[in-house]
Amino acid sequence: MPSIRFRLNGAPTEVDADPDRPLLDILRGKLGLAGPHFGCGAGECGACHVIVGDRAVTSCDTPLWSVADKDVTTLEGLGSAERPHPLQRAFIAEQAMQCGYCVAGILMSAAALLKRNPKPTETDVRAALDRNLCRCGSQNRMVRAVLRAANDMAPS
Ligand code: FES
Ligand code: FES
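Above: the input record for the complex with FE2/S2 (inorganic) cluster. Below: its predicted structure, written as tokens.
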């Protein structure tokens, strides 16, 4: 079985697996990470989003081989209960979620946006979250939360 190397949440990682397997399978299975979620399995819902480089990608339809030598970030690499990322603090402050399912992928889309564009407009945020499904009606609060996080992260 070929060995694929990449950096996962900053740590060098090596996986022996079929290189065509979806990254999501590897992250949740072999690597035991619960952050990226399986939703549609077809690249349509965004629940499985992780960051590769500075872009949010759907890990359910991203083959393992394509992340060789790249930086992969999952929710686990964003923050923790003890040290939440500003986005996580802002989502709580704005009460910007009702389920724990889709929001994992939404946070990754937002984090990728802030990585590329630390001062996004509301239009930028809406465009960045466009590929994430949320059915509970929290979208406006999510946009406010991302803008709040961007503001909190800005150098004073
Ligand atoms: S599970 Fe990957 S986009 Fe829905
Ligand atoms: S936060 Fe999950 S459906 Fe809206």
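Notes for the reader.
Residues 139-153 form the longest helix (15 residues).
The beta strands are 3-8, 11-16, 49-52, 55-58, 71-73.
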